[in-house]
Amino acid sequence: MSTWDVRSECTTGCAAHAVPRVPFTETARRCAAFAHAAGRALRDGERMAEPARLRAHARAVLGSIGVRLVVETAGETAAGLSVPAVSPPRGTLVVANHISWLDIPALLAVEPVTLLAKREVGDWPLVGTLARRAGTRFIDRDSPRQLPATVAALAGMLCSGRSVAAFPQATTWCSVGYGAFRRATFQAALDAGAPVRPVTIAYEQHGLASTVAGFLGDEEFLSSVRRVIGARGLTVRVTVHPPLLPHSGAHDRRALAELARAAVNGTVRSPARGHEERVSAGQALGTYL
After folding, report:
1. Do the domain assignments include residue 147?
2. pLDDT surpassing 60 at residue 210
3. Is 285 inside a domain boundary?
4. CB within 8 A of 29, min separation 6: which ones?
5. For residue 199, how far is the Cα from the chain centroid?
6. Which of 4, 43, 139, 173 has the maximal Cβ count within 10 Å?
């Protein structure tokens, strides 16, 4: 087993609708809308990676399948996932829990950071092509000898001022609160002197916690897509936490990983109904978060 090769205890049996599915006619409409949104992104070619276009395409994909995006901040008023530039300029390492393939467009809909993903994502139908066009960097988890080079490359991107998003659990779980954070990506933040931004991703259906978006175990990608397209009232809630500012003398990668995981898991709660920023996934491109 390699450093990034992690087995989740969650299986396809964990993924279930919290409320009744949408009717067949709505499922068919969403399938057509999803194909249209994906096709528009593909026709953009290499321009898809441009920040404004990438964010707009991510929102369009979510909206096409009826997924509502809600963004909220914890403990501060954040301008986005990236932390304002420090001196010398550094990018931000964004770390989030991992539940679904939907996590990727959800993050990109908030801010078009560079994504770090396992090599297998590049082989997924449609999404693999979209991920490559979006500038995703892929990790070969079956080759542990490449780990030092991968960490060095990630640190280099952060030093250049580019923000990168990673899923340090290295696999998907059915809900927030499960799975340890692997430490390698945090070493890159330490080496670069870059801030770490924890982010929590959670899914609801009509205010009820839901596992319907889970992409778990050995499930085929298209099977998960069909289930998500049939989900009624699905919301992805992205909670942005205050940044962690690592210091090489005071932190190590273990401490950073534990602090980030504690921040991400700290929002495990009933769905909020109070004061929060609500963003419709299908709305036109507006002011950056």
Report:
1. yes
2. yes
3. no
4. none
5. 8
6. 139
87 φ, ψ (degrees, to nearest 5): -110, 120
- On whether the CB atoms of residues 281 and 63 are closer than 8 A, the answer is yes
- What is the C-alpha to C-alpha distance for residues 163 and 90, in angstroms, rounded to an integer? 8
Average pLDDT in the 235-240 region?
A: 95
Name the residue with higher pLDDT: 85 or 191: 191
How many distinct structural domains can be found in the chain?
Answer: 1
Beta strands in the chain (DSSP E): 68-73, 93-96, 114-118, 137-139, 164-166, 196-205, 208-209, 234-240, 277-279
Within a domain: 34: yes
The CATH number of residue 80's host domain is 3.40.1130
**Cα Rg, the chain, nearest whole Å:** 18
Q: Euclidean distance between the first and final Cα of the chain, in Å?
A: 39
User: In the predicted model, what is the mean pLDDT of residues 144-167?
Assistant: 88
In the predicted model, is pLDDT for residue 271 greater than 90? Answer: no
Question: What is the span of the domain harbouring residue 261?
Answer: 18-266
